[in-house]
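Sequence, structure tokens reproduced for absentees:
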Amino acid sequence: MTTSGDYLQGTQQEQQTIGNNLIDNYHDAKEHISSSRNDHRRNNQTVQQPRPLAILHIGPHKTGSTTLQTFTKKFVKELSQDGYEMPWVEIVGGWESQVQLATCFLKKQPPTAALVRPVPYPCDPRLVDAARKISERNRGILISSEALDRPDVNMTLLRDFLTPWDVTVVYVYRRFYSWMQSYHNQVGKTVQVLKALLANRTDYLHGNINDLFYQEFTNHSTAEYVDRFTAAWKYQRVFHNLVVLNMHGKNTDLVQDFFCKAIPHAQNTCEAVKKYRDQRMVHYNPSQLLIYYDLAYRAHRLGLIHISSQEQLDTVVQLIEQHQKVTLKLSDKDFDVICPERAMLDLMLETSLEMERTMVPEFFAGPLGESELRSDFEMQAKSSLCSVDIDGTIDSSQWKGFFTSLNDRLNAMKIRRIK
């Protein structure tokens, strides 16, 4: 069975284009990086002085990275006052473009290689050059991109690039079982629904989270989620200074912890962030409910309905949700679900315990650590770690008649369009 991951990989032609662009940009960026390193060495031959600081925030994905990056844009002035500059400030495109600095450090891939994930934002050598200019001004640098959690980051190239700075790596810890579920949702949000639907290449729109767990824990060659989650360890081996921010502490405020604790000597930024946070609470890149898209897609694949346009897709998703909430008077959480088997849950729990014991040992030994993790895990094992029973829902008496009448409605839409 093919899963939604195939749509992330794209066609072979698209993949080859991505690979070629990545290689070209890789070589351009490498020239800039080599130039920056040589300039730094020449300068050090004449003057020995303390290196400015570099903050390298590596995510991983689904640990509040978008929120933190949005705040770096909001407080560019204060960060500069504290001695930190960001390469993207000089490049048109905004803070979102800093992912195109991170992708400058991916390992070289042949054009036909199947990348860990496609690179929709290829390396922009201008960002490397902007970083070199920051170094020439002997200023600190702040780089934040969750793309740095990828298993294919070239650590040697990244280390050489950061030679002018004294590097602190910032990693945000989220419990593995919670992080994996959220990252699965994030991957699902990237699927182009109509494109997948018209291609008719998969039985289900989004890969079942239970299938994902099985793959992740039984096939080490495809254990991408574990690789991303444990990225902190390879960074600590290279840069040594690692700060771990724990999302599960008592009264934790990730934004304040990042700017007030993880970044040294950032008093101006810290005070500005505290003042702003006192006025409002902000959350960016929230999770997205995918159930109704999954039901629409599966009904289409089963031939119960036929969707051929974005207008029809939007209508179908809206009517499916309306049927659940208005007609059936049920919520998003009232669907029947399929939960992982106990053996798989036990393996996931043991992995989560071991990772927390390793990443935040003192916290793990405290009252909010192991015992709280076990308790929360058992609750999630019956809810967020389960997948909606798509086939069972569609085949139920509450939904069979609905899809028949829905198909009649879609056909009527086509007739009106023809007239």
